[in-house]
Design brief:
Helix content is about 40%, strand content about 15%. The protein has about 675 residues and is of the alpha+beta class. The chain is elongated, with a radius of gyration of 39 Å.
Amino acid sequence: MPLSLDDLRKTTSAGRRGQPRRISPTLIDTAPERELAADFCRYFAELSEANRRQRDFSEQYLTERAGGDFKLARGLISAMLGFYGWDSESFQERLTPAQYEQLQSLGLTNSSVLRLALYSYISTAPRAGFVGKAGRAEALELFAAGVGLEPALVEEMLFLDNEENALLRLRKRQDGQSFRPPTAQEVIRRYNRMAIETLLYNSSEVIFGFGTLLPGALVKRIGYFSKELHIPYDLDYNSAGEIQLRLYGPVQAFGSPTRHGDRLARLTFLTLALANRSPGGDTGLAENFSVPVNTVLVASQAKGTAKKPTAVSPVLSALAQVHLRDKVYFFDVASVAEYLARPDEKIEEVVLTPSAEDTDNAEIHESGEVYTVARQFDRVAYYKQKETARRDFDSSIEARFHAEFSALAREGHTAGWQIEREPEAIALPAQHLLFVPDFALQRGSTRVWLEIIGFWTADYRQRKLEKLEKLKAHGEYKLLLAVDTSLQADFQEGPPGQKRPAPFPTIFYKNELRATDVIALLGREYDDQAGRLQQVTQAGQNLFNDQLAVRGFLPEDELYRLLKAYNKNELMIALEKLSPAGSYIDGYGLCSSIYLQAAGAALEDALKDGLRLSFEQICQALAAAGLEYNSGRLEALLMALPVVTIVRPSLFEVYVQAANLPVELPELAVVGKTRKSRR
């Protein structure tokens, strides 16, 4: 948590001659202040070891130790309370085992219950609910005798849960063990982070400068944490041609500067930590752009404030816009980045864990029966894989869409379109535009970007629309938009009473984006069938017929490739335009007349003397005749040959015989006559 604004030591400069106001926190960085932090550590450790209570804690003493600087003292106290806490002492801890057992037998296990019992005792006759000052000692003594404790001890236990009676203790881990006492350096680090967080807590946005190269992996992780923390972000170019990352805080997203400022501070810390782990801009591992970017600039920094960034981090500058008491200040976060982002900074992930109901999945229980699964289900690996897949996408909608589209592509149902996750960014430095689409869809030389737009703030959607309008004006990029139905008015309505078209072809979805809908939109907007058919020239037809004459057979999948067709309709149109010297067999391929005659003769020879052939024997006969064949579609060829017949005596048996032989069907066994048939 940040410090109170009244406790924050800070330095401000008034803006003069058009210069903006600047602000920076005063951090602990001197030898006397480090010694003071060590003194605070000793004071807290002594109180904790001596089991001193909150009434014994003296803020005045610590302020005097800080030379009267109450802001520094209160800030260090806040930092120390990150390691220590005030905990109420329990009855079991305060009493002996025998005393606690006595109270437990009476149901008096905490101060609240004990007070209620005393009030009930006072409310009984002859006191009638009130005891004066003179009779207090006697009433307390009688009540203490009833519970088996001394009156003084009972009076202490009545108010053991009061705030002033809380004990100073080290905080505990999740396993119940206490943390070790902090060192002075750890307290200083926490104080400095809290001071910086206080300014970020009151910021409307933080702007990072990355020069002209930006690691793609960094953008991916920032996008993930942005969605997790509900903080909008944007990438663009500034007037100097540098890439900027903007994190929009609560003023932009929610109104009040302090309502969700902790999330902006958290994402700022994570961005700096992630940048320290990312390769720098000169390593060659930066994000690829769709146009060359050759501007080489250095981030501008205020004189004497910013420290030179490390060679590891690609962050060249970081500036926060802070709102304090109706005034706007600018805070150079890069100047204090060393206090925030270490290479070993812990980055907490939101990890999915198995539910309590997910017990032993090695067995399936159904209708009282137990069936053992051959391979035991690894819950840990499953949730790890699920969490990894979730972090790869900015939202669950994107993850489901990518999985569905990829599955359809593997089955060949996407009309040749292939999906690509995290494609190259679209960079237009002259228009100060940097656009990172969610997906790219590729078919042949045609590349279409897909942007999925869900619910964000009105300002964020307006900035998105401005970027899309710039891309549309540029005219070189093909783009599809998938927009949540709740935002349909933003993308289709202009001034009052007027309609405006969306910048790019748009599909509106609700709750889930279907891959089939996107494929249909691609077919309507970016179909290049006419251009591909024009490439099938007379020269191509001659080459096509030459291959057919030599081989005698062209499989169907090869026809799709040769004719640049992506579905059956396109294939039939291309074949009709070519008019090849052969016969097309649906599902099998294109066969010359010589090939069909040779195949028929080979099978006639194999079927002499009334033999029956299995499909495997037919393949052997065609191979012996030197013919190429498609074993997976062999039935389509056999149906086109008049000399053979396919016979299916049952669901589990199939064979081929000569066409001139009668088909022998199995006899149906009569089990018995029914009552109705006898009548």
